[in-house]
Amino acid sequence: GSKNQKHVLRPESLEGTDEEDPVTALEWDPLSTDYLLVANLHNGIRLVDSESLSCITTFNFPSAAASVQCLAWVSSAPGMFITGDSQVGVLRIWNVSRTTPIDNFKLKKTGFHGLHVLSSPPKKKSCSSQYPTKNHHTSSTSEAVPPPTLTQNQAFSLPPGHAVCCFMDGGVGLYDMGAKKWDFLRDLGHVETIFDCKFKPDNPDLLATASFDGTIKVWDINTLTAVYTSPGNEGVIYSLSWAPGDLNCIAGATSRNGGFIWDVPKGKMITRFSEHGKNGIFCIAWSHKDSKRIATCSGDGFCIIRTIDGKVLHKYKHPAAVFGCDWSQNNKDMIATGCEDKNVRVYYLATSSDQPLKVFTGHTAKVFHVRWSPLREGILCSGSDDGTVRIWDYTQDACISVLSGHTAPVRGLMWNPEIPYLLISGSWDYTIRVWDTRDGTCLDTVYDHGADVYGLTCHPSRPFTMASCSRDSTVRLWSLTPLINPLQINILADRCWDEIIGNTDRAVESGAPPLLCGKVSRDIKQEVEKLTGNPRGKKLRWFSECFSPPGGSKNLWDLVAVIKGQDDSLLPQNYCKGIMHMKHLIRFRMSKAQELTTVKMSKFGGGIGAPSKEERLKEAAEIHLRLGQIQRYCELMVELGEWDKALSVAPGVSMKYWRKLMQRRADQLIQEENDDVIPYCIATGDVKKLVSFFTSRGQLKEALLVAQAACEGNIQMSPLSTTSGSSKSGGNHTDDYNELLHEVSKELAEWYFQDGHAVLAACCHLAVENIELAMANLIRGNELELAISVGTVLGESAAQATHYALELLARKCMTVTTWDLAADLLMMIPDNKLQLVKLCAFYPGCIAEINDLHEKCNLPDVEECMRLAETIQADGDIFETIKYYLLSTEPEKALPIGIQYVKEQLCGSDWTLDSVCPYLDLLSYIRTERLVLHKCSEFRNELLILCGYIGALLAIRRQYNSIVPALYEYTSQLLKRREVSVPLKIEQLSEELDAWRACTQLNKPTDELPCTPPSESQRMVYSVLVSRIQEEPLKGMVGPDYVAGSNLPSHSDVHVSCLTGLRIQGPVFFLEDGKSTISLNDALMWAKVNPFSPLGTGIRLNPF
User: Fold this and answer.
1) Best CA proximity match to 81, nearest among 93, 70, 68, 90
2) Are 492 and 391 contacting, i.e. CB atoms less than 8 angstroms apart?
3) Exposed, middle or buried: residue 684 (CB in 10 Å: 0-12, 13-18, 19+)?
4) For residue 607, is pLDDT > 70?
5) Domain harbouring 264, CATH code
6) Which distant-in-sequence residues (6+ apart) come within 8 Å of 318 by Cβ?
7) Is the residue at 396 inside a domain?
């Protein structure tokens, strides 16, 4: 029966009829408890009073076809609301006092899905130059500031505010209503589960995805934008497969509508396959060894092999539904299938039999995907609903490994194309797991996806960048390089080929270090061996491009090549799409503008939502204007019919050109018999033309008036003189412009950097040849391997930063298996004596191993170091004494000497960071197992407290603002809880922290609370701190660290930082207890200023 309805209010036109008109959106007025905005599908929007049950206002749309999808009140402007249309992306702005919209903006071709108004605009960086403050006095000679142009209705100006807009095609953006522009727009995306993803065989930058929403999209993974989308809606698309090579086609498989081939550049479906009828096709696979064959497998129990024009070659019947198939990478006639009957089958196409060659049994539930290994002949894997992945050896007819760990059915499967034992699986348990198939261990489990993980893929030429797709409707990109340490460092350390590249048999030996066994690494090796002279730079670049994820490393290397004097003709074709060197900017922009003007299309046609001719000409004009080519801009504006824009800037070319343009406009208006011609003629002093215009229209009085005015000298022929002071304009502005260029590039770099794109930030600096800042950005983004590669090629100009990066990377290598690599890296630094001492001091081996390392590092053996320490101690050189004790058989003897020295320094009044840091830094390299001994506990606590306090000051020096309070708090806690005698007091620490906060105004004032200026005593405390801290010696290292992915949202795995108590965004770092977490950015900054873990255990932190 029908539910109780207390009050029903239908649109008036429907009263007393049975017609349905569903409500599409409703919102309560934020300023009233009774008013409600209601949108009906056919009858538009009404403002309703729920108290009196009456309709207050009915709003009218400009066209009857428009219907509202969503609406939202604008809280910053009482009575204002906005609506989004359902058919086209038109944003309309309304005020309750009028029945028609104040303004309409067409934002996109597709309709709205949702809208939300953010009342406070996102914070802009305060630029005093742009926003004059209230106390700028206006004098009578100031230039008038024109009021903002109001919209059609002059009574309303638009509210400041941002609308979050979501569209039906998956587009999402932040629209600034006041400025009428997008702050951010992701043009389109999937709106449902993404079942499959694959890279284009001949282009590692293009990734295709297939979705439940009925489309396949092709993404450029450098810009994360969709560049093509399949036409129409195909129903649910389960699977896709690229045509081999550069055929530019994608085969797709659907749940009800068979299979198809989509010609991507032409944008149309060219073939359809209907052999499976209405049954779902779960997998489609285009053979890469024989491009004429495509396999599909379906719920009807058949795996069908056909030619691309639809001729069936084989039909393999299975006892139940077939879910997965995969062509062998070594034999073009072999294909494997996964079936609901829990079995894996291998078929051989060269025989006429329709029976499988092999049947593998073992799974206890249905088998979904199967994948042949690209590097090991005869090895294949299968994933099943039983939650396991099984590895089969075709030649032995056997299952050689079962990988258990997933807690739900397994879907995505991917072998790595370079490391033969690396296998990655995705599951309905929301996780991705990385396996070492040699012994079946799970190397890593990733919890980021918010739902089932369906597809996993990577491109052979970028083997350590993986894409995954999921029911959470996202595609995520991953870097696998952490799994193959120390391979990349072997290349940096110039190790022999045998430690970098190997054959499969060597690589799959149990416990062998990772070796590259794929085609890409072999190709690089061959190319390097062909080079004469010093091939190191090329080798570093090629491997760097193979290891680095997308997002700027190619761009970075192009800029390095330009700086090193490479010929421009060798630059790649897409160089102009990235961040260009300053000397190319104007040239390439000019050709871009020309290209837009001639409206040529690329060979791929228009692509998605190709801009109209008008839009392209506008864009061209804008570029010309920014390049200072005013005349070109004017002419394009004329072509677009925007005469006023052209005329307003024409004097910038010359007065002569402006007059000519005015005359052209006047001639056109006279032809159109348009009254608007009058001001043009008067301004240019063209009296004759104007008089004849009036006469021809019979307006003789008007003609008389103009002629009279001219006779009396009121209408001037405007003189041709240019502006006054032109003689001075030849002065030298280049220095100013140069400074400006650097400022702008710095600002852009900072924007990229804070967005987690350190490599692009470095590109901005390299484009203006600021090598120091480029290197600093790479190091602060923890792109150490890339920084060292690029720094090595750039040479002397990058040397200081390269050495610092080598030092940090050597710290990363101070782990059980890679000590000798750390030594090799430090050997690449010219002045490395002290660094090698620290490495040997920290090395935890037995005496014989320690002595071997000492020998490699050119240091005396441990006994000799003990003797030296005692001798030097007698002479009173404290630093050298500490050094040799640390290298001796009893390193703990260094602790009291060093700590006593630092305590004495801190008791004085004029100590600085530089006078104590070297001592604490050296002491911190004492072997961990000695430092944690019970007999050292007092010294350990004092060392931790001193390192914590000095770390806080270093963090202030480097502006690591997020961890300064945490370091002060950590030091206070240690002081409170542990028995120590150090010249520090808890009250002093909190005073310093408050003074730092007050004087750097980090407790930024909100709009409500004005900032309280620091007190006199706080100023005093802070000035003492500043005098102790002094300048950071490494330029460009000042400012926080941001690693790649810093701004990505966390998903299934929410971690809370034990430093800040806040949820961590971006990469997470686990501390030594295995459960405490901090953000990777904070971990990197902490380790750079305080080597010891925030847990106070005395264990060194190694997040690099």
Assistant:
1) 93
2) no
3) buried
4) no
5) 2.130.10.10
6) 301, 302, 303, 337, 339, 340, 341, 345
7) no
Report if residue 1096 sits inside a domain.
no
In a domain, 1062, yes or no: no
1006-1021 pLDDT, tens digit per residue, is: 544 566 788 999 999 9
Task: Note the pLDDT of residue 149.
Answer: 38
Q: How many domains does the chain have?
A: 3
Written as one string, the DSSP assignment of 395-408 is GGTEEEEEEE--SS
pLDDT at 391: 98
Q: Kindly state whether residue 47 falls inside one of the protein's structural domains.
A: yes
Helices and strands counted in the chain (H then E): 31, 41
User: Which among 571, 539, 540, 567 is positioned nearest to 555, based on CA atoms?
Assistant: 571
Note whether 205 and 309 are same-domain residues.
yes
Residue 511 and residue 421: Cα distance in Å, rounded? 11
Do 46 and 181 have their domain in common?
yes
Tokens of 533: 């002279």
* pLDDT band at residue 611 using 50, 70 and 90 as cut-offs: low
First to last CA, the chain: 67
CA 556, CA 579: separation in Å to the nearest integer?
Answer: 9
* 167 and 220 belong to one structural domain: no
Mean pLDDT, to the nearest integer, of 553-558?
92
Tell me which residue range forms the domain holding 224. 191-317
753-765 pLDDT, tens per residue? 998 999 999 999 9
Q: Are residues 244 and 291 in the same domain?
A: yes
- Does 164 lie in the same domain as 65? yes
Of 514 and 612, the one with more pLDDT: 514
Confidence of residue 135 (pLDDT cuts 50, 70, 90): very low
Structure tokens at 228: 């093509």
Handedness of CA 665, 666, 668, 674 (dihedral sign): positive
Q: Is 80 exceeded by the pLDDT of residue 37?
A: yes
pLDDT in the model for residue 638: 87
Alpha-carbon distance of 399 to 381, in angstroms, equals: 9
CB 1057 within 8 A of CB 1064: yes
Same domain for 172 and 217?
A: no
pTM: 0.84
Report the candidate in 477, 466, 475, 431 with the shortest Cα–Cα distance to residue 452: 431
The last residue of one of the domains, among 317, 340, 361, is 317
Residues in CB range of 238: below 8 A, 6 or more apart: 195, 196, 210, 253, 254, 255, 280, 281, 282, 283
What's the whole-number mean pLDDT along residues 936-949? 94
* Residue at which a domain ends, from 299, 317, 335: 317
Residue 848 pLDDT more than 70?
A: yes
Q: Which of 891-895, 923-927, 1049-1053 has the lowest mean pLDDT?
A: 1049-1053
111 & 34 share domain: yes
Asked whether residue 20 falls in the same domain as residue 102, the answer is yes
Contact yes or no for 414/394 (Cβ under 8 A): no
